[in-house]
């Protein structure tokens, strides 16, 4: 019986220590320990605005804008135009064709022959 009571007292002391530790941590302002991917500076890089990868991307795009503007426009416009053309062919054009054919117009042909 005495052994069991000692175990309960030891368990109670351990719980009180843990509770006190949590109170101190909460008083500091940190309610949880930092996770592995989280930095103490809030995930910011050397300038406080960008991470290193974001800074490298920003500098690279800035260089392309200043020195190689045509290349930058080529790299950005080709994918955008491809997506717009694909959306037109797969989504918008069939709906427009269906609307034209349902009105009984001249066959529902759209220009371009696609």
Ends: how far apart? 90 Å
Which series of helices and strands comes N to C? HHH
Return residue spans where pLDDT drops below 50 for at least 5 consecutive residues: none
Mean pLDDT over all positions: 80
Coarse shape: elongated
The helix content is 55-70%
Strand content: under 5%
- The tally of beta strands, per DSSP, is 0
Provide the gyration radius in Å. 32 Å
Count of helical stretches: 3
Largest sheet: none
Secondary structure category: mainly alpha
What does this 3D model show about the protein?
The protein is mostly helical and 114 residues long. It has a domain at 68-114. Helices cover 68% and strands 0% of the residues. The chain has helices at 2-28, 52-67, 69-102. The longest helix has 34 residues, at 69-102. It is elongated, with a radius of gyration of 32 Å. The model has no long low-confidence stretch (mean pLDDT 80).
Give the secondary structure arrangement, pairings included:
Layout: H1 2-28, H2 52-67, H3 69-102
Helix pairs in contact: 2-3
Brief description of this entry?
The protein is mostly helical. It is 68% helix and 0% strand.
Fill in the keyword field for this structure.
mainly alpha; elongated; 3 helices
